[in-house]
Amino acid sequence: MNQEKSQEEMVKEAVEEAKKAAEQAAVAEETSDAGDSKEKPLDAKASEETEAAGEAEETEASEEAEAGEKKGKFFGKKNKKDKKDEKIEELTDKLTRQMAEFDNFRKRTEREKSQMYEIGAKDIIEKILPVVDNFERGLGAVSEEEKADPFIQGMDKIYKQLMTTLEEAGVKPIEAVGQEFNPDFHNAVMHVEDENFGENIVAEEFQKGYMYRESVVRHSMVKVAN
Q1: How far apart are CA 83 and CA 127, in angstroms?
Q2: Which of 61, 170, 187, 205 is within CB 3.0–4.6 Å of 176 for a Cys-Cys bond?
């Protein structure tokens, strides 16, 4: 009887130990599951944060690289020119200089031509003026009775035609008598004291002076009063 009880007790103890072992195993499994469930979100969050940080760094690095590339291109274009553009600028500068030189040459040539023309015209006028002087002397010596002579009238018409032609060409006589003496236009060959004239006034003209345009061809030969 004692022997059967001991066997039953042994069986009960074995069952109890088995239950305890099963319970411990279940608790351990639950603990493991709970630990896994707690660690996984942390790991995932950390992984996501790391991944986001990496992507941000990559984006920032990409933007910096792109900005650097644009900056390099910008300064590259500014500092380093294409050979074709340099050649265009060189030819443009050369053409501009040549056009400026040509314009200066044209102006200088026109000025020289004008001066040469004026010098030539003045030379011809100087040679014609003695003829004008002879006409004036001859007509001035004609009496009132002789002025009706057809020959004298013909000479007077020729003289007037000559003076009209000179005037149209830009030749005009210099005003002298009654004007204030001006060395730029008058050549004083005599001085006289005369109360009828003011101080430094031209009293008489011995030979007419003439101007061609704005320059003097021949000074008036005059007598100055006071």
Answers
A1: 65
A2: 205
